[in-house]
């Protein structure tokens, strides 16, 4: 039976990927190990935004009582799909079913929608909404494109390009340097300053610390 091994492995700079045991393992099997410059390679941007929104919701509800996040998580997860997003001005729930969700408060304090609910006609109305769903999604995509254009124009007006040259003093992202696990959400995000010693390629540099020692990673 033949054994298939990867020719290259691309990872972030987590300690589990940079420690000697793993690097030696890859070297012995002739596997090229490549560490990305950033701490986490870009994966699913939508998932990252969703996780950030959920975390923000937890912080808002918990304030200083962070130990109770497990109890508040169901409420935040319920609030996420029924909250309108700025780019689309639609809720994720509506973009999925083309109908508004009935929130728990509408059940406890009956609204007009709940009081006039017709179970027999409900299925037919839901099917009708699903037939119109592609148009709703197309309109949402146009809104997202227009929103991205507005954000890009605003960013470009405020953005001042700054080229990094050899001899400049710069800061280094702590998480990208493989030190993210040593801190917490309130830890500093940057460390340094470091001296730019050489340019490997545009946007990638070799750095020296205050003692003149070259850092091992770009």
SSE sequence, one letter per element: EHHEHHHHHHEEE
Instruction: Give the spatial strand order of the biggest sheet.
Output: 3-4-5
How is the quaternary structure best described? Answer: single chain
**In DSSP terms, counting alpha (H) and pi (I) runs of 4 or more, how many helices?**
8
Q: In percent terms, what proportion of residues is strand?
A: 5-15%
Distance between the termini: 40 Å
Radius of gyration: 25 Å
- Counting structural domains, the number is 3
- Helical percentage: 40-55%
Major sheet: 3 strands, antiparallel
Count every beta strand, where a strand is a DSSP E run of 2 or more residues. Answer: 5
Shape: elongated
Structural class: alpha+beta
How would you state the average pLDDT, rounded? 81
Low-confidence stretches: none
Organism: Dendrobium nobile (Orchid)
InterPro entries: Integrase_cat-core, RNaseH-like_sf, RNaseH_sf
Domain Integrase catalytic: 1-100
GO molecular function, one term: nucleic acid binding
């Amino acid at each position: 039976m033949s054994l298939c091994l990867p020719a290259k492995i691309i990872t972030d700079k987590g300690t589990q990927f940079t420690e000697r045991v793993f690097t030696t393992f890859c070297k012995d099997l002739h596997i090229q190990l490549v560490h990305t410059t950033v701490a986490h390679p870009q994966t699913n941007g939508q998932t990252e935004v969703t996780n950030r929104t959920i975390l923000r919701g937890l912080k808002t509800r918990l304030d200083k009582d962070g130990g109770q996040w497990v109890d508040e998580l169901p409420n935040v997860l319920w609030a996420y799909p029924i909250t309108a997003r700025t780019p689309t001005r639609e809720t994720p729930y509506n973009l999925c079913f083309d109908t508004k969700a009935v929130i728990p408060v509408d059940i406890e304090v009956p609204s007009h929608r709940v009081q006039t609910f017709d179970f027999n006609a409900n299925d037919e109305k839901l099917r009708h909404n699903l037939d119109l769903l592609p148009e709703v999604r197309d309109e949402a995509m146009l809104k997202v494109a227009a929103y991205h254009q507005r954000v890009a124009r605003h960013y470009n007006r405020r953005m001042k390009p700054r080229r990094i040259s050899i001899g400049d003093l710069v800061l280094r992202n702590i998480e990208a340097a493989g030190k993210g696990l040593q801190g917490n959400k309130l830890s500093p995000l940057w460390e340094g300053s470091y001296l730019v010693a050489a340019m490997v390629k545009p946007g990638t540099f070799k750095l020296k610390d205050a003692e003149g020692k070259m850092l091992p990673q770009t």
